[in-house]
Every structure is written in structure tokens, then in C-alpha cells.
Amino acid sequence: MLEPAARYTGYTAYEYLEAGKDYREFAYATQIGRVPEYAGLELTTEQAERTRRLLREETVISLHEHVQVFPEDMGELREHIKQGREPTGYQGLSRSGLTAVFDNGMDGTCCISSDAGWKYQDVLFDLGVRMADLAHQDFVIKAESVADIEHAQQTGRIAHIFALEAATPIENEIDRLDVLYGFGVRQMGIAYSEANLLGSGLKERGDGGLTYLGDRAVERMNKLGIAIDISHSGDRTGLDVIRRSKTPVFITHAGARSVWPTNRMKDDETIKSCAERGGVIGIEAAPHTTLSKQHPLHSIDSVMDHFTYCVELVGIEHVSFGPDTLFGDHVGLHDAFAANLSLGQAHGSVEYQKVPYVDGLENPAEGFYNIIGWLVKHGYSDDEIRLVVGGNTMRVLKEVWV
Question: Domain span at residue 371?
């Protein structure tokens, strides 16, 4: 983990408002040191300095995170979410070394007005409130283009890119994609685990593939310049999207089903098809997802088993990282929202041993220091590391974004 970025002034979320008057205040999880620091890297002095140099100098992009801070008491989670005011973890981000981050906000837990989530008005509220907060500080900046990411890199800032894990909120209104683009959304999934009007999610018994409305949505996202994500889509729907899209597609946060056999992982056909069309798979690290038989207790080593498999399958030019971390008790979030997040159906009958957190990839502040450190320790070159921590993603964005 790095020292706080020089440009970070200590701003905390919504400090321009009066807590207790303008919004309800909660006690939030600490952004640094919530769990013990990962001790498994054991880098030499030279390796540690090389890790810090790469993190400082290279364009480092997370394809998928939730950079908000959650309540310390997860028993208050639903009441907190209903307030619709998610705080961005500026302090933690200042230690991350990230150049850019795709932030998926509340997503499936966007339950401001309905416990079912995903309501269009709620999503717009979440986006608008988060943007209002970003506008009151100058370290984490709203990013909508490759030029914005380059500007962040040059000026010591972090480029924050809004994303949604599914297009479910558009219902049957294709023009809502334009509205969401206008709000700053630059990456979007087709379906979450549940099917919607566009296609099937990964938990469904059957997958009918991309619908005609889904065809129109893919076409519109291509025209707008919204990067498409198929992480939570069913297998057939995901393959249909890859074939229909005129630009490369992301699998922003997943792993390989050949390494851990659950629906949450992607099969080899999907990973290879994505790569053949120029796309990239970002390796996931949310609790109890990217496990492996070699490392059944979820840690950075489990995650990197998926990374090495995908590199061998499709080449290092098509692999990146979308750790899917947050500030707070991620396992507690999953427990509280198991139905919304379809965790049971995603795991199926595959048994696993529960852990309290993913050792080495617990939050956005520590993730990429440990990822780069692991790559350094395991003999990857600077050029290879440069590709997987940002270069591959930038290549796709230059083709997809307008």
C-alpha cells in the first residue's frame, strides 16, 4: 500500500453538508486497516520498490469496484441504503495507487424505494448524489473519456468512471441508455443474475440468449460508446452479445469455470470468444467467487490461479483485473443481500469454506499493490504487468468509447 496521494486534501464524503441536519449520519467502517495487512507477499526490498514504482508510474485501472464505504454495523445496512447517500472512500482511494476505477455504486443493492432494487429512478438518484459529492473535491474526478483518464494520470488524480452491472433499469425504454450515458455511465452489463427484457442472467435454469430488445440495446450502446460487460450474463446471452457487438466486450469481474466450477465463473468458450473479438476479462476477487482447488480458502493466491489460467488460455493481452472490492464487511453485505445478489444460485451445489474476508484483496486501498507485488514476485516483466493492470483496458476503451 502506498502513502496517501499528494493531491488528496483529506476530504470526506458530503462534508459540504451538515450531518444530522441535511442527511442521517452513520458510523462507517474504517477504510484503512479494517483487517490485518496481508503478510503473504514477503517481497525483497528490491521487489517492494519495483512494486511501488510500477504502481506510481503506470496507468492502473480497476475494471470493477464499489468504492463506497459501508456502515460499521451491518445491521444498519438496509436503513443506510434507503437514505440514498453512499459515501465514496476518498481516504482509502488516496492509498490505492489507482489511476482510474470503474465504480458500480449501489447496483443490485440500490434499494432506496424498493427492496427488489434496480429501479430506474433510484439509480438516477444514486448517480446524481454521488456526482454532487465528487464535484465538491478535486482529487477523485468524474471521468467520461480516455482523455480524462490520461489527465488524471498526468495530474496525480483518480479518474472515477460510473458503471452499472446490468441494464435492468432501462426496462423496455432504449432511450434510457442515452440518459444514463448523459449522467456519465460508460460501462454497463446486459443482465444481472436474474433475466431481464434484454437477456438471461447467470442464475436462470435456461438461457434463451439475447432478445430482440437486447439486440437493440447492444446496437445503441455501441453507438453511444458504452462499454458492454457480460460478467453476470448467462452463457448463451454472453456469447450473443460478443457476436452482436461491433466493438470488443468486457468480462469485467469473473474467473474461469475450469478453475472453479460455478455459474459465477465463465466457461472457456466465452473467455476465448471474448478475446478473439478483442475483449478483456477482469479477474474477480469478491468473497467466495474465484476460489480454486489449490487454494480453497479465498485469498489473492486463489484469485491469481484464475489469472494464470486465463493468461494461458487466451494470452496476457486479454486479461486484467476487476477485483470487485469495497470499504467494509463484504461478507456481511453478501449475507444481508443474498437474495438480491443471487449468491445461492451462482454457487449452485459447489461447497466451499467460508472466510471473513479475502486475504490480500480485501478493499480497493490494498488491491493493486498486492496484485502488482504478486506479479513482481512471480517473475512477470514490467511490460507484462503494464498490460494487465491498465494497458489492455485502455486499448479496448480507445476502440469502444467515442
Answer: 45-400
Residue 320's contacts (CB-CB under 8 Å, 6 or more residues apart) are 61, 63, 280, 281, 282, 283, 388, 389, 390, 392, 393
- Which triple of cell numbers denotes residue 303? 484469485
Q: Is residue 357 within 8 Å of 299, Cβ to Cβ?
A: no
- Summarised one tens digit per residue, pLDDT across range 365-394 is 999 999 999 999 999 999 999 999 999 999
The answer to whether the pTM exceeds 0.70 is yes
Helix 367-377, helix 300-314: angle, nearest 10: 60
Report CA-CA distances (Å) from 225 to 145, 176, 199, 400: 10, 14, 20, 6
How many separate domains does the chain show?
1
Helix 45-57 crosses helix 367-377 at what angle (to 10 degrees)? Answer: 130
User: Using one digit for the tens of pLDDT, what is the confidence trace for 92-135?
Assistant: 999 999 999 999 988 888 999 998 889 999 999 999 999 999 99
Q: Is residue 82 part of a domain?
A: yes
Query: 283: closest CA among 65, 1, 15, 2?
Result: 65
Give domain status of residue 7, yes or no: no
CA distance 332 to 286: 12
Q: Establish if 301 belongs to a structural domain.
A: yes
Q: Is residue 247 a contact partner of residue 399, using CB atoms and an 8 Å limit?
A: yes
Mean pLDDT of 172-201: 97
pLDDT(200) > 80: yes
Residue 401 has pLDDT above 70, yes or no: yes
Does the residue 23 lie in any domain? no
Q: Please report, for the domain that includes residue 292, its CATH number.
A: 3.20.20.140
